[in-house]
Amino acid sequence: MSYLNFDKNELVNLEYSLARETIRTNRSGSFASSTIIGCNTRKYHGLLVCPIEEFNSERHVLLSTLDATVIYKDNRFPLGIHQYKGGHYAPKGHMYVRDFDAEPIPRITYGIGGLVLEREILLVQEEERILVRYTVVETQAPITLSLQPFLACRPIHQLGKANLDANLEFSWVKNGIKANIYPQYPPLYMQASKKMEFIPAPDWYYDFEYIEEQKRGYAYHEDLYMPGYFEINLKKGESFIFCVGLKEAQPTSLKKLYEGQLKKRVPRDSFENCLINSAQQFLVKKGSRVELIAGYPWFGKWGRDSFIALPGLTLALDNPHQCREILDSKTTELRRGLFMNNGEKHPPTYNSVDAPLWFIWAVQQYSIHIKNKASVWNHFGVHLKHILTSYRDGTDYNIHMLDSGLLYAGEENEDALTWMDATESGKAVTPRIGLPVEVNALWYNAICFALEISKKDKEFQQEWAKYPEMLAQAFIQNFWSESRGYLADYTNGHHKDWSVRPNQLFATSLPYSPLNEEMRQSVLEVVENELLTPKGIRTLSPAHPDYKGTYEGDLAYRDAAYHQGTAWPWLLGAFCEGLLKIYGASRLAQVERIYQNFEEEMWLHGVGSVSEIYDGNPPHRPNGAISQAWSIAELLRIRRLIQKYKKMKPKLSPEIQNNLI
After folding, report:
1. In a domain, 149, yes or no
2. Out of 42, 512, 535, 618, which could bridge 445 as a Cys pair, Cβ 3.0 to 4.6 Å?
């Protein structure tokens, strides 16, 4: 039995199996995703979901699903499963499922009497093509396999309906057909490695029901188009490959293509390898550029997420070249000191005060990794100076430096500029206008780092050398409370928000901090006591009246809960790093437990990956995107920290040693 395996008893239980999803990507923007029994529960599910050039490279669901029916001993056994309007399931092919295995690629095994049939799914790397291989493992008589492709051809965030605009014609190609149901789309080629008979039977199937969209408060019914069905006769030991792609394939080469692609797969045979495999799926190559996808299945390019996740996805896996490559590609988006926040909007938005500071942090992590400060300044110095100068002198969204040296950002009735940017009824849930604590911790760190690596740039040194000391004093005076023992979340004039939130963590974890050791220790204790869960750091203390411990319900409630108690795994990176900086190896066992706590997540929600968020309340259900870049990235960084501190002896000040928890 492999690492990621599910047996029949689990699979026939729909409450269990429909809650577990798979995601596979082709490293160039396409993906395949569904539940482990192949029943789509989201509008984002599909066997072939691709960026379409004709639509500004937005991702579209092309092939929604592929149903198979076995004709065996004069009986028909449909293997597909769909939920239709009213919660009706048809057909109920999951009753024939014997086993699901995610290693090395998703494989479902069906059992019908003396017949055993396997279906394996493989997405071709850097090509818009899905390969589905069927193998007759055992049979007491020859079988006929019938395949029905269901087409959506619509953007991932929308749903399709039956319409008169669809072109129901098709063209013959080698071992298959070419269909082009809408003129704006490229043709879709459906072919097989062996000759199959295609029987045209164009028809619409109505009211597929996506229960996850219903839970999220979105429209959840869709119509899908089925052009006809393919049939092939098979006997014991035979297999064939069904291929769907945007370019015509050579049927005789499909077997070789399949085998070659299979060899490239990183095994998912351990917790560690699952994280490594997931990490690779977020890195997307588009032409000469390498970009980072924030999460699957619905996130695209996000500037802030990219910079936060980048060190964990690259440097923690000893890949500094790819880290620099992505940093270089992102610098082309720099405008007035700001980076593109949501790259999928047209025009793109630049409303992120922290993204440029996270960029500098990512450059800092790269510099630490390669141990060559001079070359980093020579390469990235112009961008660092541009960001720092723009922020000091003032840029868009009222981002500017105050006389104290602290950084101010935001305006009333405008976008929320920090990572806590959820909105409810068009208004920011946590606007945090003024001086956000993590932004100013990042600002202090950025200036100190730039001064560290620019020793030979005398002009820059003279211009910026006065700021660290001034800023450190202002930071403590503005944010620190001796009586409370923690930092204000943000301040605005005379108002100070003393809600216990995780943003103060970064003042304990960044390479440069304005806080002394005792202050950092106190912050960590407060966070540990009020915000730490086994699956992430809560975004608000349960003691606060606005705390929401579950992330569920319609869009309005979910947006209200997103940063008001929901736990985020990515914040554990800062917590663990801050903890180890203060306590050293004496707290290594705790950090290892935090890391290992996520192994059980490999069989939940997004199989083999880690979710975006978790409920703040026990049992801390996974939620949000099924596979999130910065969740994976920070776990890989924690893993790297564990490796580092295992080689070190505890080095604690006497004051800290006396206050060990």
Report:
1. yes
2. 512
Parallel, antiparallel, or unpaired: how do β-strands 31-35 and 295-296 relate? unpaired
Domain residues for the domain of 288 are 271-657
ω into 104 cis (within 30 of 0):
yes
Residues 504 and 470 in one domain: yes
Place of tokens 């092919």: 93
CA distances from 167 to 50, 138, 164, 190 (A): 20, 40, 8, 16
337: left (phi over 0), alpha (psi -120 to 50) or beta: left
Give me the CATH number covering residue 28.
2.70.98
Amino acid 490 reads: Y
- In the beta sheet, which residues pair with residue 50? 60
Query: Domains in the chain: how many in total?
Result: 2
**84's torsion region: left (phi>0), alpha (psi -120 to 50) or beta?**
beta
Q: Is the pTM of this model over 0.90?
A: yes
Are 167 and 281 within one domain?
A: no
* Half-sphere exposure in the Cβ direction for 271 (13 Å, CA): 12
Residue 265 domain flag: no
Q: What pLDDT band is residue 653 in, cutting at 50, 70 and 90?
A: very low
CA geometry: angle 351, 357, 363, nearest 5 deg: 130
For every residue of 26-38, which 3-state class applies, written as one string? Answer: CCCCCEEEEECCC
Taking the C-alpha atoms of residue 154 and residue 105, their distance in angstroms, rounded to an integer, is 26
Does residue 264 lie within any of the structural domains? no
271, two tokens? 């917790």
Asked whether residue 395 falls in the same domain as residue 424, the answer is: yes
- Same domain membership, residue 357 and residue 221: no
The verdict on residue 394 lying in a domain is yes
Measure the CA–CA gap between 659 and 661, rounded to whole angstroms: 6
Between CA 49 and CA 156 the distance in angstroms is 8
Map residue 389 onto helix, strand or coil.
helix
Predicted pLDDT of residue 40: 98
Asked if 221 and 344 sit in the same domain, the reply is no
In tens, the pLDDT along 58-116 reads 999 999 999 999 999 889 999 999 999 999 999 999 999 999 999 889 999 999 999 99
Cis preceding-peptide flag for 534 (omega within 30 of 0) = no
